[in-house]
Design a protein that fits this description.
This protein has 1 helix and 11 strands, in the order H-E-E-E-E-E-E-E-E-E-E-E. 12% of the residues lie in helices and 46% in strands. Strand 10 (120-121) and strand 11 (124-125) form a beta hairpin. The N and C termini lie far apart (54 Å). By secondary structure, it is mainly beta.
Amino acid sequence: MLITSLIATLLATTAAVAPAQAALPSPFTCRYVLWPWQGGFSADLFITNNGPAIDGWIVHWTFEEPTQLLGVWSAEMKMPTPHDAVATPMPWNKVLNTGSMVVFGWTAFAPKTEVPDDITVNGIPC
């Protein structure tokens, strides 16, 4: 009985001191460049891949103000709602090798705009 109690105490102590795993840094760096104008804006998003190569990417972010997409370059872009934006690659820029960068941009109507703080690439925050 003493040995069983000692083993149970040892296992409980070992589990209690297991180190926590630190969050890994994002493999992506994003730079959002904004050119506002009266009633709208143009923007470019530069994405650098600091991790392993990827074959395909999906970028998501939100706008605080209702936004209407006018045009886009170097990506396909959809706005499921006036506040949500989703961009996917063109066939020629879908592979993002380690250390490489892709840039795409768009123009839109919006009463006001700011640089979004919730950009994700393949679900990973930038």
